Amino acid sequence: FLQWSLIRYLINEHENRQINARIGQVQSRMNSLASERSSLIGYIARDPLFSGFVARGNIPFMRNILQREASDLRGEFIVYDREQRLVYGQRIIPLETYLPTMLETIQRTVNHFFISMGEESFFVTHDYIFPADDTPSNDPVGVLIYLERVSLTGSEGGFDFPLFQVSRVENVPYTPLPEYFRGVIPDMQRALTRNADHLDLSNINRLSMNSALGSVIGYDLHQQPALFLLFPFEREFNDFTHRGLLIFFLLIFAMALIMISLAGAWFGKHIISPIEEVSNKMHEIEQNPSFLEPLSKKYHGILGNMINTFNSMNRSLSRYSNS
């Protein structure tokens, strides 16, 4: 049991390091994107000229400012007024379902969230447009929204590890996941659903002995999942097990060698040495019977009794020799 627990711990730690490193890279990219978009949208929304054009409904001048400030962006700019009427841009019905939530609590901080439309996920950044004579009591003229498609996979993502993206859990079976994931698709869907129910931003799920899954989840304004980024990971459980068993048995073998060495040293000191000492004395007596020197009594137990017997025999021989 101890060996099995140790192997599982080592495997989990290895997987956590690998998957968390990938999750960290993706979250860092997403945070950078949110920061860049928030700064840009906030800058445009607070421009007094842009605010005035929104108040007057001057679409050409709004377009000029947006093209000037965001010429390198490929997403959609949309403007709604305070009454949720479309002022600029293309009307997107799924996006309009979030307008009441966006406008019910007016705040100066930039907000961002995800929405899913069909098979794709989109990143939404918005900020409030206030009148040019801005004071803390002013109501906003409207809201500026920037909508762009999320694509972090393949060459667009630029990551050096497999990354898959789906907008809904139901789309997971249609994702070209590695072959070792094919048998655990239902388990993966249940795990992702459970993670989203808990509002997890990221998680690691071990689906089988051979497969683990890292995930990052993006939510909409209603706390519903709108983006799933998946990191498949082949656990190589059997290789870890074999290596763990090999290390375990090598440790056992090394400990056994140490114990044998210690036992040999103890046996040599407490068993062999006294016997050799008695044997040497008997050989001395054989060579010189007149020279009888007793052995020192530094042993106990059976060896001590043997030394006592030997010394007693020496004394008997000495008396016999003298008589």
**Tally of helical runs:** 9
| Cα distance spanning the termini | 73 Å
Radius of gyration equals: 41 Å
Coarse shape = rod-shaped
Task: State the low-pLDDT regions, or none.
Answer: none
In terms of quaternary structure, the protein is single chain
Range of strand content = 15-25%
Q: Main β-sheet, in a few words?
A: 5 strands, antiparallel
> In total, how many beta strands?
9
The chain-level mean pLDDT equals 82
Query: How are helices and strands ordered from N to C?
Result: HHHEEHHEEEHEHEEEHH
For the biggest β-sheet, the strand order reads: 2-1-5-4-3
What is the helical fraction, as a range of percent? Answer: 40-55%
Q: Structural class of the helix and strand makeup? A: alpha+beta
Structural commentary:
The structure is a single chain. The strands form two sheets. The chain has a five-stranded antiparallel beta sheet with strand order 2-1-5-4-3. Helices cover 51% and strands 19% of the residues. A hairpin with a 5-residue loop joins strand 8 (211-219) and strand 9. With 323 residues, it is α+β, with helices and mostly antiparallel strands. It is rod-shaped, with a radius of gyration of 41 Å.
